[in-house]
Design goal:
By secondary structure, the protein is an all-beta fold. 0% of the residues lie in helices and 48% in strands. It has strands spanning 3-7, 10-13, 18-25, 33-39, 46-51, 58-60, 68-73, 78-83, 92-99, 116-117, 121-126.
Length: 127
């Protein structure tokens, strides 16, 4: 069983920055492809960014490309999402997710391929 806990959310003004963290309680973190998703009120959960087992591969949603950076530290069982130039439309609950079946160098994009989810952290961006 994998437990994921997000932190780092909060209220920020448009144009500001936040860094989200996700810590995984798992023996071999490097065996899991990881991703960030978000869900705004009244909307479906959507892919934000994903990272491969080693961290060498990353993918981003077009809406965040160039503004967000995903990274991981396998030695510390941590994944990060650095968010810059935040917009009001980035307001959502952000979730981290883990996929234990991913192959090396593969970034998992599909929501239904992830096996484990955190509880989420709220990010609110004001104008």
């Amino acid at each position: 069983q994998v437990q994921l806990v997000e932190s780092g959310g909060g209220l920020v003004q448009a144009g500001g920055s936040l860094r989200l963290s996700c810590v995984a309680s798992v023996r071999t973190f490097s065996r899991y492809a990881m991703g960030w998703f978000r869900q705004a009120p009244g909307k479906e959960r959507e892919f934000v960014a994903g990272i491969s087992l080693s961290g060498g591969g990353t993918l981003y949603a077009d809406s965040v490309k160039g503004r967000f950076t995903i990274s991981r530290d396998n030695a510390k069982n941590l994944m990060y999402l650095q968010m810059s130039s935040l917009k009001v439309e980035d307001t959502a609950v952000y979730y981290c997710a883990a996929d234990g079946d991913a192959r090396p160098r593969i970034v998992v994009v599909r929501l239904d391929e992830y096996d484990y989810w955190g509880q989420g952290t709220q990010v609110s961006v004001s104008s």
